[in-house]
Each structure stands twice: as C-alpha cells, then as structure tokens.
Amino acid sequence: MGFDEGLITLNSDNGSYFSGQTVYGKLVFSQDKIKKFRGIYAKFKGYCKIHWTTQHSRTNSQGKSESYTVNHESYEEYINHKAFLIGGERGEVVLQPGKYEFPFEFQLPGNCPSSFEGTVGHIRYEIKVVVDRSFKIDQEKKVAVRIIAPLDLNQDPYCREPIQFELEDVYCCCCLSRGATETVVKLPVAGYCPGQLIPIEVACENSGRVTIDDIKLMIKKKVTYHATTNPAKRETKDLIAEIKKGPIPGDTTRNWTVEMVVPSIDIYNLAACRYIDVDYIFKVVVSPSGCHSDSKDYKRLVIGNIPLVGYQDDVQNPLHDQMPQINAPIVNQPSHQGNESYPAPYPYPEVTPYPSGTSYPVTTQYPLTQKSQTPYPPDQLASNVPYPPPYSQISQNPPYPQISQNPPYPQIPAYTSGDAAQSLSANTPYPNSPYPTPLNMPSPNPPYPQNTPYQDIQTPYKGTGLKTGTFGFIVPTSVPSEVNPLSMPAVTPANPFATASAPPALDKEK
C-alpha cells in the first residue's frame, strides 16, 4: 500500500471536458507506514508536439557520399499550471499511516484547441501528480484528459453557402472529336455535423461518343503539420466517405439525387494551434472510359459539432457518448448550482429523433421548435461559458410581428376625417403616443410653440423665400432701383468769398 497504488479520479466519467470548463479531481491513496517528503503537487499540462525525420545525402570531405538524418520539430504549450496539494518547495511533511484524499482543480483556457492524435504530431492534455522527495527519485502518477473545443458552424458564414461544381470536357482521339460532357454537382450548404445527410444533386449530359464509367463523390480529410525546427511541411490525406454513380453512355443524360451520411468522426477545432491544420474537402471526379483523362474538382467542406440553425439540427450526434459526462464536483468546494459551463451529464438530451435500427431521420430536415429535442449543445449556457451561445433561443415569439387580432398600430386609414381619431383602438401598444397627435388634435405638449418667441420685426425687405447659389441668401421681392450718380441734379458748391466785403479803397490824394 502507498502512493504507487493510489488513484487520480476526475469529475468527468470519461475524462472529457469542453474548453473553458473547470477540471475537478482528487488524489486518493492509503499509507501503511510513516512517509516523509517535501510535498505533493499536481501539474496540468497541455501542449502540441510535432516530430518527423527525413533522410538526405551529402558528400563528405573525402569525396564520398553519406546519408544523414534531419529532425523536423515544433512545440507549443496551452496550459502549464502547478499546485501543491500538501507541503511545498522546501521543508518536510510527515504523513502518518492512514487513508488520504487531496483535492485539486484546474481552469481550462477558453481557447485551447481540441485533443488530437496524428501520425507525426499530437495535442495532449495530462494531469501529473508528483511526490517531491529529498535526495530520492520522485514518485509520479499521470492521467490523460481529453479536451473538446466546440466548432460552431453558425459562426462561419461560409458554412451556409451552397456548393456547386461544373465540369466540362471535350474528348478527342487521333485529332478527331469524340464529343463533350457536362457534369453539374450541387450541395445545399457547406457545413455539416456527424450523422447528418448531405443531399447531392448530380446531373451529367453526355453529348459525345465516350462512355463515362463513373462519377465519384468523396469526402477527404487533410492534415497538415508545420515544423519550425528545420522548417518543413508534411501532409496526410484520408478518405472519409465515397459514393459512385454511373455509367453514362454516349448521347444520354443522367440525373440523380443521392444522400451521403457524414460518418462518425472526431471533430477537431484547432484554430488556436499554429502547427497542425485539419481540413475537409468535397471532391468530384468524372472518369471517362478509354485513354481519356479524368476531370476533377474539389472545394472546402466544414464539419463541426454544433449544426446550422434550421438545417437538420434535430439529428442525434452519433458521438454523444464521447461528450463530457460531468458529475458534481468531487472536491470540497461550493456547489455550482445553475452555473455549469455545460449541462450534466452531457450536452445531448436523452431524446433521439431516429428510431432504433435506422440511420435516417423520420422527420424533415428542418429544426423542431421544441428545445428539449435539440441533440447538440443547447443555447442555455451559464455565465462562465467559454463560447457564446451557438444560436439564438428558439421561442414562441418570432423575430418579426405576427398578424393577429391586436395589431401593433391603430387600424385607421391614412387620411380620415377629424372625428376618426376618436375611434382609435384601446389596445394600442402605447396608451399615450410618444409622437404628436395626428389629425390636428390638440396635444398637451405640442412639439413646437404655437407663437413665435420673437416679436414681429419690420424687415427692410420681405423675401420671397428663394435661395440663391448654395449659401441660402434671401432675394427680396422689391429692391430699390439702381441710382445713377450722373442723373442727380448738380449742386453748385457755395462760394466762400460771396459774402466777404472788399477792403475800403485808399485815397490816392493823400
């Protein structure tokens, strides 16, 4: 008995959590003898690691060719928290024989990527409990934690866009024309969830003499790894689903509507990861017979775990058993009543729209109005939700007014007599209208004063109200005629010497 036989238990039965949730756990072990150590700590670590090697050749100093290995790597962390359960970095703790339980908790970042396992890279989350002992090898226990980052299709406008392929080919042999074909493939939207059906319209017009062997409709998964040490890129591709239609003989036209089921695959939201990309593509391949080349085209397809509102959002998630199954916190902490990040035990209600034994829904592709039948994470999330609600709450109140017996505005014609205002309905939305009373009815608060606050002022000119130019000057109705200074009567200036008297004459005889 001792630490090595102990257990790390979590409040999620399957060890899965949504990003942004709180991980509660505890260390339980029994000790049959006295144990001394510095402390016991729990460490939560989430990281991405990529590594692959390539072989190269070179010529050495002796002129001989030799091979060497190049390591391509990348690494980044998303969470690295450490908390002591007992003791610390220094000192000594003595445990007496008995059974011990040490609780712990860790808050997940709201933007951490999903757990992922690939061929040359992975994203992992783990909790490690360590007994830190002086001058001895530490004792460790680990437990893996699976993180699911919700991928809401409603957040990407591209997911609602339809997808259409148009492939045209002209065939010839020995410089002689063998005709042409035109193939059109349509998908209603670009975003889907596992378990949903993709209705695909296929139309092929073969106006030539070359038979089309088949038309392949495929969903492919592409994973791209990026290395920063010895920078390089590596891709892997996997076939997820495929449907074949054909053949189409010459001078014929074929039309199909096929349904492709999105398989039960893990959903990866790796937007916060810089070194791993997971993408899905829808590919169309038209294969003619003989030595003619195939025609192919592909477009991006988005696969998430929160469906588009109004499009097959009543389909049961086939991976609901892998969703977080959160129980009550197993540590001595205040209960979070009504404040869980996601409902327990998992965000999918125990209602399946499918009858047992069939994979096709018995209802239409449009959503049900009852929220209790929504199979994907509901919209009633708590205040500490790491992501905003995926879609607005579907209620009995539509976003636009309905035609009812109580219209929101009075039922009166646009122009009525003066007594028509008295026939206003008593069920108007406002008892006192916030706007001026129509039909010239007196109002206790007119919008503007009845009398101008200024006294009448005799203006020199009474304007016509016409504006000149772009400055708004008023042109008066009557302007005095222009005065010509030449036509005015001449005024003779006064002679300053007219009233002056001459001096008396001098007597010459004197």
TrEMBL record:
Annotated organism of origin: Pieris brassicae
Composition skew (Pro residues), residue ranges: 431-449
Protein known as: Arrestin C-terminal-like domain-containing protein
Protein's GO biological process: protein transport
UniProtKB keywords: Sensory transduction
Signal sequence, renumbered to the chain: none
Polar residues: compositionally biased ranges: 330-340, 355-374, 392-406
The Arrestin C-terminal-like domain, residue ranges: 177-308
Family classification: Belongs to the arrestin family.
A Pfam family per the record: Arrestin_N
Region (Disordered): 329-449, 491-510
Gene Ontology annotations for the cellular component aspect, listed alphabetically: cytoplasm
Keyword Transport: no
Keyword S-adenosyl-L-methionine applies: no
